[in-house]
Design a protein that fits this description.
By secondary structure, the protein is an alpha/beta fold. The chain is built from five helices and six strands.
């Protein structure tokens, strides 16, 4: 079972992802957060295998949150979710410690593949 923490400031996005992930027999939602502070709290509690993290959030953005998550649990894969084009951000996110980068424009099957890929210790960058 892959335990996922969903971190996005939009409640509708979190609801949609939770419903979508419910169809995956090997996925479980470990927690949801609307901001970086809440994400850090979820990870500190443990029981998270992968964090799906929105890059653009108020308060503490995804890049800052990524760096703090990696200080708490360096081995835990963080998959960045973004509306920005991969060419601009993917390499920088991987350098900052992300295990992968998925565009919001990606097909849902790519998101599932990305989560499974990073959960197994490999890197993932969406193809569009």
């Amino acid at each position: 079972m892959i335990r996922i923490a969903i971190v996005d400031d939009h409640a509708m996005v979190r609801v949609g992802l939770r419903q979508f992930f419910a169809d995956q027999i090997d996925f479980a939602i470990a927690g949801e957060a609307a901001n970086g502070r809440e994400a850090l709290d979820i990870v500190r509690q443990g029981e998270v295998d992968v964090v799906l993290l929105d890059i653009s959030m108020p308060d503490r953005n995804g890049v800052d949150t990524l760096k703090q998550l990696k200080q708490i649990r360096p081995e835990m894969p963080v998959l960045m979710l973004s509306a920005y084009a991969e060419e601009q951000y993917a390499v920088n996110m991987l350098r900052a410690g992300a295990a992968g980068y998925v565009s919001r424009e990606s097909a849902s099957a790519q998101l599932v593949a990305a989560i499974r890929t990073v959960a197994h210790g490999r890197k993932y960058v969406s193809q569009g």
